[in-house]
Amino acid sequence: MAWRYALMIDPAASDDTRTDFDSTFSEVDPSAPALTVGELSTQRGDGIFESIGVVDGHAQEVEAHLQRLAHSAEICELPAPHLGQWREAVRRAEAASGAGESVIKLILSRGVEHGPTPTAWVTVAPAADFTEARTSGIRVAVLDRGYSIDLPGRAPWLLLGAKTLSYAVNMAAIREAKRRGADDAVFVSSDGFVLEAPTASLVIRRGDTFVTPAPNGGILHGTTQLSLFEHLADRGFATAYETLPVSALYEADAAWLLSSVRLAAPITAVDDRPLAVDADLTASFNAYLLSPRD
Amino acid sequence: MAWRYALMIDPAASDDTRTDFDSTFSEVDPSAPALTVGELSTQRGDGIFESIGVVDGHAQEVEAHLQRLAHSAEICELPAPHLGQWREAVRRAEAASGAGESVIKLILSRGVEHGPTPTAWVTVAPAADFTEARTSGIRVAVLDRGYSIDLPGRAPWLLLGAKTLSYAVNMAAIREAKRRGADDAVFVSSDGFVLEAPTASLVIRRGDTFVTPAPNGGILHGTTQLSLFEHLADRGFATAYETLPVSALYEADAAWLLSSVRLAAPITAVDDRPLAVDADLTASFNAYLLSPRD
């Protein structure tokens, strides 16, 4: 994969009134060294990120991603991001993204150890080809996330609602799913409620209602799921947030994993139980998700 | 803090028979960019590390740290490290460490996204002055780690026994402890058993027996705790690994957090309950821990 663009950002304070950020941006060669060994992102996964899908030069749902970045910063006690500065950085990345599908990644790190400020950067890379996952679907393995459904609210230091750079467990869960013959994982709480996938949100269909696990402080609020729910409402479907036992996934009429870059991937099997795939409905979801969205 | 030394490593395969690693090492300026934005350590905390204490140019317990690095690599499905190569890298770092106390950090990252191999490096930095923590002691806050004591064995994808770069939660727990007026945290399982501190092991004294939580796959086996237990045995004390309810910490005759760089920090209070400190015994622990150990 060739990275297309990288922009280092000197983060402005959130109360900074400036609107010209030229002096805070520095374009770098994405294949050349840009970070020091003292970076806390690299030493401790201590920072936050967002991945924004880009289709033919249009970055999708930028505001929702920026809001979530700010939310993650709050949970992690990082300085509040200056959203105007990030918006402008995304605009520059968007301009460098080219045709087809790509991904803009925003990273806000706590900085260099003992250093004065956070470090931050934005990259653009071409997206992988997800045609197969979007059309033929994916198999998922159910994996225990290890905590009970009511934990996140009483243990905020576990950072469960933040999109942190500490993603080793998410990556290990996907490897475990592949070892089990699946393509992706769905996490369940230790008391048996479905949560989310390591890098995606879950949506199930039950009759004419589309349901996603209720935000409980331990689930990232998926920007793509939010966008799809708006689309479903426009089409006259009911949508709901519910605390869902894992049986609801096994017994769903259909289910999808939703994420910013892969978009809607229909689930063909949960562990060894097949799920029906509605090819036309899924295609309509992805057509919508590939259209320009703000 | 001035970094003293940084060495980039091109990781050799564990079955490589070479003994000359010159061509795999590259000394870099620790304050200059050395890592690319595509680094998976920085994007996902996807890698492992070790921190080795150094006293007057002698790196402590190097073999125990190398063995744990290999153990973490196995859990995280990273290529097995060539221990001869790492040993030589530590030797070079040791030579650059200078007088007084410092810390050698070993980092093995999964590499650059879509890249062919892991990336790896070693740094040396002066240690902070921990005299106060070692003599006056530290207050700890008990924090829920969120999982039950029997979880790690059945959910290896949570990587609970590996020293991964995904340390954002460990850092957040220390911030929460400070917010509560303490200096550090002690994690307990959701079912009430003491585990470890975010960056240290716990040892309690009960009469003439010194006890640390039994390894359960979810606790790092502390190199400093292991070394102290050898020392205690030499002095005729009993040592034990036990599954300890949190009440055992509250009711201990004394307790310490043990780590490679801060060494033995006596606990003066657990939440609001004071603990007695044996200043002479603690001083003898730190004198031992500061002596050259292999």
UniProtKB/TrEMBL annotation, chains A, B:
Gene3D superfamilies: 3.30.470.10, D-amino Acid Aminotransferase, subunit A, domain 2. Keywords: Lyase. InterPro entries: Aminotrans_IV (IPR001544), Aminotransferase-like (IPR036038), BCAT-like_C (IPR043132), BCAT-like_N (IPR043131), Class-IV_PLP-Dep_Aminotrnsfr (IPR050571). One of its GO terms (biological process) is carboxylic acid biosynthetic process. GO terms for cellular component: cytosol. Pfam families: Aminotran_4. One of its GO terms (molecular function) is 4-amino-4-deoxychorismate lyase activity. Its EC number is 4.1.3.38. Belongs to the class-IV pyridoxal-phosphate-dependent aminotransferase family. This is 4-amino-4-deoxychorismate lyase. It comes from Microbacterium marinum.
